[in-house]
Specification:
heterodimer, A: Rossmann fold, 2 domains, about 25% strand, B: alpha/beta, Rossmann fold, 8-stranded mixed beta sheet, 5-stranded antiparallel beta sheet, 11 helices, 13 strands, globular, P-loop_NTPase (chain A)
Chain lengths: ~325, ~325
């Protein structure tokens, strides 16, 4: 397999000022991420709000330059490419189909807009391409002359998907594409994305907080915590044998529709830490039940074993496992 | 069933006046809740589940008109605004979806926690404060005394929702209505809040009405389930029966739409429900689900029978799903 998109040690900082006279502070939204997206895969990215998954999505889309590190598309550095070239490679689908479509333009104009911007084909060719892609995503042709407010949430999300695909991109980055939709509509959109991936040979990055959906659609899953990927593995492996204590806690919080199982105890005692003031050592250690001697002082290194990456001292052979366990939740 | 019921709702209807005509948001629903039990009302957006909760609390928007044959709380008629005014926030409490909009940003947590308690119980400021601290600790908020002086924006989403729960419990209610209490929260916090609600309910013997669109939550927390579609309860019964043996095509369709580990294979096609929800404006006859139903037949356009087997109820021309 070849990597279509690579991120090497990518970080993104934000200067945050809380109050007019307070000092500026630095927020590491994304902190040293290495990621190689393989052609044809569906990469799921999961994590709690504030973990940096949307910032990472914007970096991958070329909408936000990384503060440090490099992003490369098929071997070429992002900084060498102009916005037009990037847009031909990567396209977005956002969460809210109500705010991501221009309410004053007709559906055909919205879907065909990328073609206009890039000056692709003649007017007639563009019209043909628009109607072909609209048919492909399941939008009836009479929708072409309608406005977004005449469409339901699911239909709007189909418009957003058609607009992303009309340029024939290599990668589509979907940031919570179904969270604003009802379950019966969500399943339609998930089915559509899976079909399109097969038929059009497009690579998907699928960001979601719904782990059940990610397990269903993704082929590989990255778990993010406070700006870092703490575990990355093929989906079935991650769900069958999660290695990082945070991944285990996340997986235990899934509420599958099975009556009688009760509500799980996640064991994540404390609330999500302040990203402006991240914990020392392993950033997860204040909430970790299994933390031991090195966790609050030493940052764990990424450990790779047959395609399964984890950042946790528990699995590091160089760390002495017999060191005393620290009391959970002081 | 209504003998031991704490909340009894019979033939509740809510109509909304719109520019296009009368919108029948809630179309003749009946249910009851017993002490110590959890009833989940589940449905997709626009099915009338939130209107139902607002109708019980007498908090409907001005354009809405509510009619009901019975609306009673422990035998008292809560259809009367005077009775409801006395019970609301005292015996009957509500938790809303978005704690940031439900809490007043201009008042401290302490002020908002104590207000209803002092009003209903004629308690002193000190008593109210002590009660508030005890409850904040009960819902898992550390250094509760300091939190009382803070404003809502200083708290995280999970903490705000805990404050909302503490506020609802201040007067020791016997009925708690929670409208999508965890929808705005992360999955990990969601599990914590639901556990807390279930614990408190068992401990205090509260009757809980939980309104949600999430079948996962329903399966894990509900004793009884009411599935709403287009303003009606289309199926009602014990959680085990609803999930194990659904009788209404809509319930079956909803369950098939979500990926279930062990049942749906990853990457496989998920079930879908064709078409969209019908308009609730104007007169309606027959089954509202018939345009989307894989089992629809001409007879569905006529009045739908209400079928029962024990305490399992469903509205469908079919006695059993094929």
């Amino acid at each position: 397999m070849t990597a279509v998109l690579e991120a090497n040690d990518v970080s993104r900082l934000f200067e945050v000022r809380r109050g007019m006279f307070r000092k500026k502070r630095t927020l590491h939204a994304v902190n040293g991420i290495d990621l190689a997206i393989q052609a044809g895969e569906v990469l799921g990215i999961v994590g709690e709000s504030g973990c940096g998954k949307s910032t990472l999505a914007k970096i991958l889309l070329g909408l936000l330059p990384p503060s440090e590190g490099r992003v490369r598309y098929g071997g070429r550095d992002l900084t060498e490419l102009d916005r037009f070239a990037v847009a031909k490679l990567v396209q977005p689908v956002f969460q809210d189909p109500y705010s991501s479509l221009n309410p004053r333009r007709r559906i055909a104009a919205i879907v065909g807009f990328p073609l206009d911007v890039h000056g692709i084909g003649t007017k007639a060719e563009r019209r043909r391409m628009v109607s072909a892609i609209m048919e492909r995503v399941g939008l009836p042709s009479h929708f072409a002359e309608r406005y977004p407010n005449e469409l339901s949430g699911g239909q709007r999300q189909r418009v957003a998907i058609a607009r992303a695909l009309v340029m024939n991109p290599k990668i589509v980055v979907c940031d919570e594409p179904t969270s604003a939709l009802d379950v019966s509509v969500q399943s339609q959109i998930l089915n559509l994305l899976l079909e399109l991936r097969k038929d059009l040979d497009v690579t998907l990055v699928f960001i979601s907080h719904d782990l059940g959906v990610v397990e269903h659609i993704a082929t590989r899953v990255a778990v993010m915590y406070l700006g870092r990927i703490v575990e990355l593995a093929p989906t079935h492996e991650l769900f069958a044998d999660p290695k990082h204590p945070y991944t285990r806690a996340l997986l235990s919080s899934i509420l599958t529709p099975e009556p009688g199982l009760g509500i799980p105890e996640t064991g994540l005692g404390e609330a999500y830490p302040d990203p402006l003031n991240p914990p020392s050592g392993c950033r997860f250690h204040p909430r970790c039940r299994q933390r031991f001697a090195p966790c609050d002082t030493q940052a764990p290194r990424p450990l790779l074993a047959s395609g399964h990456m984890t950042e946790c001292h528990l699995h590091d052979p160089q760390i002495d496992g017999s060191l005393p366990q620290k009391d959970a939740y002081p | 069933m209504s003998g031991g019921a704490i909340l009894d709702v019979r033939h509740l209807k809510v109509d909304l006046a719109t520019e296009r005509g009368t919108l029948h948001a809630v179309r003749d629903i009946s249910f009851s809740v017993e002490p110590g039990r959890t009833l989940c009302i589940v449905g997709e957006s626009g099915c009338g589940k939130s209107m139902t909760s607002l109708a019980i609390m007498d908090l409907l928007p001005k354009s809405a008109r509510r009619t009901a044959e019975t609306l009673s709380f422990r035998g008292e008629d809560i259809g009367s605004p005077k009775v409801m005014g006395r019970l609301r926030g005292d015996r009957i409490a509500m938790i809303f979806q978005e704690p940031m909009t439900a809490l007043n940003p201009a008042y401290t947590i302490g002020d908002q926690l104590c207000e209803a308690y002092r009003h209903h119980r004629k308690a002193s400021a000190r008593e109210a404060r002590e009660k508030a601290i005890a409850l904040l600790e009960r819902v898992g908020i550390a250094s509760a005394g300091d939190r009382l002086g803070q404003f809502p924006h200083q708290l995280s989403g999970g903490l705000r929702q805990r404050v909302m729960i503490a506020m609802a419990l201040m007067c020791g209610p016997s009925l708690l209505i929670a409208d999508e209490p965890t929808t705005a929260l992360d999955v990990t916090i969601q599990a914590q809040i639901l556990r807390l609600l279930a614990e408190l309910q068992e401990e205090l013997g509260i009757a809980l009405v939980l309104i949600t669109h999430d079948l996962g939550i329903v399966a894990r927390i509900a004793d009884d389930v009411a599935v709403m579609y287009a303003g009606q309860i289309v199926e009602q019964g014990k959680a085990g029966d609803i999930f194990g043996d659904p009788h209404h095509p809509y319930t079956r369709g909803l369950i098939d739409c979500i990926p279930q580990p062990g049942k749906t294979r990853p990457g496989e096609r998920l079930g879908t429900i064709a078409n969209t929800v019908p308009s609730l404006v104007g007169e309606m006859r027959g089954c509202a689900f018939r345009d989307r139903c894989p089992h629809a037949r001409p007879v569905c356009a006529e009045d739908v029978p209400e079928r029962r087997a024990g305490d399992h109820m469903w509205r469908c021309v079919l006695e059993a799903l094929p």
